[in-house]
User: Which sequence fits this backbone?
């Protein structure tokens, strides 16, 4: 086994990170496909959200057994609750969007999350942003308008849900930035999973239908895709700099378009690709500025962000 993966482990860090990121994007695109599949069987999106969170909690059981309750100690339960609410709302909105609009379009609009995150960082974290990042934000919104084409086509509820999911995801990420100052990553994941599970159970009970064996297999696959997707992506960011890794996130759109075309007869138009490229370029630039800010802060904490 070790000999079979040696060419990968001996490869340059940049190559490893690129491969890990692409694999992670493949799994996350698969997650979107499974969500769409379960919705097409008649399962309500609220039940899908609950089952997804249940599968995520099952994956965390080994961590709980290894670390015990002591690893969950925190002095910031209120912020965890706020982060969980935003995470839950974002998940419901995203899952619902995937059931209405093509997977590729939903992913393309999801790329606006870093743009909304930058705006929230200004308002909540009081970051100073100069003209170049403001220009990147403006370009990102232009990309969103290319996809939505207001006035030319009538946006569906799915497009609004995808954008709302991006906004609430940005809120959740802002909370994570604040929590990361004092909390460990495993504890953050575990707390949010524990809070969201009952939060997602209550609305699911009102639309509950007993899953079939086939449904449960898809739920298990959904849980695995979500877990492996985030694990591979997290590892990619650990291996190489975020400014190098992030451009490969665009492969998530490619995989989503392929899955949508093969399994659901979805064919995104050229405006989705153009708009997604514009949004993604803006997001990558914002990430580069974030990285530059992180490098300059140890030298001068009072330096303004470009």
Assistant:
């Amino acid at each position: 086994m070790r000999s079979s993966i040696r060419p990968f482990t001996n490869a340059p860090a940049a190559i490893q990170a690129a491969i890990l990121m692409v694999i992670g994007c493949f799994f996350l695109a698969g997650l979107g496909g499974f969500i769409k599949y379960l919705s097409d069987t008649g399962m309500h999106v609220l039940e899908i959200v609950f089952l997804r969170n249940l599968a995520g909690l099952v994956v965390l059981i080994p961590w709980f057994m290894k670390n015990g309750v002591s690893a969950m100690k925190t002095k910031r339960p209120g912020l965890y609750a706020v982060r969980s609410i935003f995470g839950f709302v974002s998940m419901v909105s995203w899952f619902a969007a995937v059931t209405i609009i093509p997977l590729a379009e939903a992913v393309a609009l999801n790329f606006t999350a870093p743009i909304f995150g930058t705006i929230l960082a200004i308002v909540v974290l009081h970051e100073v942003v100069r003209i170049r990042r403001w220009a990147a934000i403006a370009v990102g919104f232009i990309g969103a308008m290319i996809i939505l084409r207001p006035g030319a086509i009538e946006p569906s509820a799915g497009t609004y849900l995808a954008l709302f999911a991006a906004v609430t995801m940005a809120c959740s990420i802002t909370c994570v930035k604040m929590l990361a100052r004092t909390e460990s990553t495993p504890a953050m994941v575990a707390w949010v999973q524990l809070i969201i599970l009952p939060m997602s159970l209550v609305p699911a009970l009102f639309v509950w239908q007993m899953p079939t064996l086939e449904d449960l297999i898809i739920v298990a696959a959904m849980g695995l895709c979500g877990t492996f997707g985030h694990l591979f992506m997290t590892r990619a960011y650990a291996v190489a700099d975020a400014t190098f890794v992030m451009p490969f996130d665009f492969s998530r759109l490619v995989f989503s378009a392929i899955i949508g075309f093969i399994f659901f007869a979805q064919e995104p138009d050229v405006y989705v690709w153009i708009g997604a490229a514009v949004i993604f370029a803006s997001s990558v630039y914002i990430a580069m500025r974030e990285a530059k800010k992180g490098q300059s802060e140890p030298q001068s904490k009072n330096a303004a962000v470009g």
Q: What stands out?
A: The chain has one domain: 34-296. Residues 84 and 192 are 5 Å apart (CA to CA). Residues 298-306 have pLDDT under 50 and may be disordered. The chain has 13 helices and no strands.
